[in-house]
């Protein structure tokens, strides 16, 4: 009997431990091995400074960013007088001459690029071998002291040893010619080289190309000699990836072979080549907009025996925003904690062990920027200074070490700590950026202020202040989708299994992780979250890691209202204010119009002009879409002062632009948007559906806002008349919602953008209540587009299917979004969204989409569990926000609502729909109303 009792106690203890462990994992990402790649590392951030924690026990790498370190400088992005070509471009589009319109627009209607350097002069200097001794093209040249590098490298020489290098590099190798090749012309197949090459065989030039075309050069037989022959290639790389790139399909080899044969019958040149850097300062390459930059790297080199490391674990607790690494070595238990403190404006690293004198390591600061240096500031502080290559911004970072017992010294640019009991590291950073027009700041100021503020503080105080500030955002919302067996697995294993597992709790963790990432990258007083939040390790990141405004920037902020992070909109709203100023200049220069306009991208400097190419860069609705966020904030908060002083003035100016911009279509008589495009699909057109949905919504929102404020009666009347004339949504021959004015529906088009469904989500131009037939057409369009997509596109489609009230289809896409991103869309090991490559918008859009399945409020009432999937039969959410100024707590079991608590933050009428039940009641500000599953 006693034995049975003990077993029962043990069983209960194990269950309690298991549930506690699982509960912890609802807020924790954890792994049993260190990060190998950047997308394995765990992100921390305080809105301004971000870091990626690799957590190696022997070498701990912390890559870090400061949000205002960008390329570029304040300048005018606008082409003066571009409006003179507007009517000509429109006429060409009306005549069906799209290519001619795009050609004219490319020449006369795009934004101004930054100033280029003198490439011709530089190329001449490189051809004349400035910066290198002797003539490396010659077979007799002595290259025995040159280093070796693997070639080709499809992702650039940056990936095989020449990190962050642009410039001129010589490559040399040799090959032995078979006797039966003598007297034959040969082909050297190098495929792609970035960017220009001069290719020599035995000292004679056989080819020169200065573009992205494949390199296949014929080698005359007379140049080939018996035995050893020398290949020398001078590569000039202007910008971004450099070197012998070869083939994307690495099974295809670069090589040499006789004319008429193939590389398979020839000699492979995939091997180690000798190389020598000739010059690493090429002239500036003109850019339409600028790029977000990495700042630096902190590496901690520990004096441990790798073979003795056991019990390794690294984790990120998103409920406290603290990363942790623990392991055992030589019988000693080590712990490292990392967080980015907003109150103290520093990355804090705390190292402890359970044995005295156990912590010994060297700490080194470095940067990928060529213009960088490390120096000693005092007996416990190093300073790293950086300057971007193309631009005016400079930065300074400081690393301060505080030890308990042990020894600390600084020599040779590194901090050396020996036999300490405990160590605290403070990593700070700042730049000379003040605002988009002012770069007169001192990069040291942020460091001095932070370190002065940290003086004398105990670690427990710093940590608690950090947690308290962070949880003012995080703790406003909670989600529980039940337990699952997989909660006890490391996150990477859980990710691998999610698609086929019953693990709704992982979707709940993903929601909270999206909230964590937004809190970490967008605090009040900072810049808004960019394409990668605030995390970037590349000098030339994908799409510049800037702000793409035809979906991606907006998607970043979809979770703010519904997931109770409203305060995090502040950086976005401040950005909109800045864009409205530069956008007014663009509106005048390009359209001779009032108000302000934003095309499909912007950067730190608030560029608003069209960029890149006319077939996708001329899209006029960025400002109008951002204005939707202003109106939504009012809808959720009912903050009349915000509407009056911030939102409505910006919305009105955006609407004034379209009052002037819209023109009558000569065929239909409707008012249409032209020139524009349906983002990145179909080229420059007259009358894309998305534009009309956004403009119509902007006009309606302005009418409603002016009504609330009781202002601008004539303006309201004008917009009301315009709305009647804007081209309506149309159903095409395949039963689909038309993407363009004409019915150009293609049921095989699987494009990642589904822009014509903007009116379904995030807009409300098309709803079940106001036009069920059009809603069905939109659904048909999405069915034709298919499910497969890039990461952010999957996230958008989750929201669409939620609005279509098909929770099971939405859940299918959630499983596609939260799957391992081996070579395509999904999630990386650290749950970053994969476009691929990494873009953070999918994290935010996915989190918002899960919420949209639980609650919708865009039709004027609270729609409860409108798209609940069978895979989430039980759940509880607290802190969901709804339009009308309501906050909701709700619980469901076996797919049915059991409890609903509504808090009214603004008072007024509350309408609630759940299945076939509908109720309406008046509320008082601050009062709470409790309902059961029957809404009683």
Structure summarized in a few sentences:
The chain has 936 residues and is α+β, with helices and mostly antiparallel strands.
User: End-to-end span in angstroms?
Assistant: 50 Å
Structural class: alpha+beta
Task: Please work out how many helical segments DSSP would assign.
Answer: 19
Q: Which range does the strand content fall in?
A: 25-35%
Would you report the number of β strands? 44
> Into which percent range does the helicity of residues fall?
25-40%
Low-confidence spans? 1-22
Largest sheet: 9 strands, antiparallel
Could you walk me through the main structural features you see in this protein, from its secondary elements to its overall organization?
- About 30% of the residues lie in helices and about 30% in strands.
- With about 950 residues, the chain is α+β, with helices and mostly antiparallel strands.
- Helix 2 runs antiparallel to helix 3 and helix 14 runs antiparallel to helix 15.
- The longest helix is centred in the first third of the chain and has 24 residues.
- The two termini are about 50 Å apart.
